[in-house]
Amino acid sequence: MKIKVQYSTMIVKNLEESIKFYRDVLGFKEGYHVDTPDGSGITIMNSENGASVELIENTNFEVGLYSIGTDVDNLDETIRYLREKGYGTTGPVITTTVGRMTFVLDPDGARICLIEHTQEYKDKYM
């Protein structure tokens, strides 16, 4: 079982302002952007060392750190392992445009997003 931190997810008030900050002030590069069916916008900003910040403008969530995004090689195996260690997921596995995902909470309640990315996504972005 492999788990690799990919990015931190931030809920932002204004996506364009946040993109400008991460790009023009911190030197990140825009990776890709997705408009979701609910009207939200998601932009991945990549740093030089490989770490990324996922920026999401969505009024359904409180502004600030939302979760730590990870890539797992096998989501079902990871969920079984977590259950054996006494940790359950916070909801069902859902299918997204980039793979399958669910969340687990760390001992202090921080959300960890567990994502099994599609091979197409890995080939293009990882």
Structure notes:
With 126 residues, this protein is of the alpha+beta class. It contains 3 helices and 8 strands. An 8-stranded mixed sheet has the order 2-3-4-1-5-8-7-6. A hairpin with a 2-residue loop joins strand 6 (94-96) and strand 7 (99-105). The two termini are 18 Å apart. The relative contact order is 0.20.
Relevant terms:
alpha+beta; about 20% helix; about 45% strand; 3 helices; about 130 residues; single chain
Helix/strand layout:
Blueprint: E1 3-12, H1 15-25, E2 29-35, E3 41-46, E4 52-57, E5 64-72, H2 75-84, E6 94-96, E7 99-105, E8 111-117, H3 119-125
Parallel strand pairs: 1-4, 5-8
Antiparallel strand pairs: 1-5, 2-3, 3-4, 6-7, 7-8
Task: Give the overall shape, derived from the CA principal axes.
Answer: globular
Residue share in β-strands: 35-45%
Strand order of the largest sheet: 2-3-4-1-5-8-7-6
CA-to-CA gap between the ends? Answer: 18 Å
Backbone CA Rg = 15 Å
Q: Can you write the helix and strand succession as a string? A: EHEEEEHEEEH
How many strands, which pairing sense, and closed or not: the largest β-sheet? Answer: 8 strands, mixed
Oligomer: single chain
Structural class: alpha+beta
Mean pLDDT score: 92
Q: What share of the residues lie within helices? A: 10-25%
Find the count of extended strands (DSSP E, 2+ residues).
8
Count of helices? 3
Low-confidence stretches are none
Quick take:
With 126 residues, the protein is α+β, with helices and mostly antiparallel strands.
